[in-house]
Amino acid sequence: MLARELAAYDVVNVGAAGTFVVRKPGSRTKFLADLRRKLPFEVKVACCGAGDLLRLERENPFETEPADPGIIRFVSILSEANRSKTSFPLALPSDEEWFVRIKGARNCLVFGEYRRHMKSIGYLGHIDHLFGTPATTRGWSTILAVLRIVKDKKLNG
Question: The whole model's pTM is what?
């Protein structure tokens, strides 16, 4: 429904977790103001440009071999650019039994992998604290779906 209300920006909804591709964003400030006006609650928005995602895909931060079935690859989008001096890779917790492993960060994107375990959710929440800004996390498969939409727009738009 929100994507339809933002039709002037050619918004595509990806999944059910509030992930959108904005194919005609115009001014980011104006778009974000319009988005916030349409929501009945305060929200901190995490967004990135298509170029950031395309660059991440080209850099291929994940091995070319498939991940173990118990491992999920993820990208967290920070609501502000990364200014952290954190060294990578970084495991949470930092002992042998990690639940989240952050491989790196570029601009507003943080990428890594987590174990398919309930404790991982709590450790993913530490990303906000590590980088000093709210973040939203999506699986690599969702990011690849976003990239397909972005590339389709580039080819057909």
Answer: 0.88
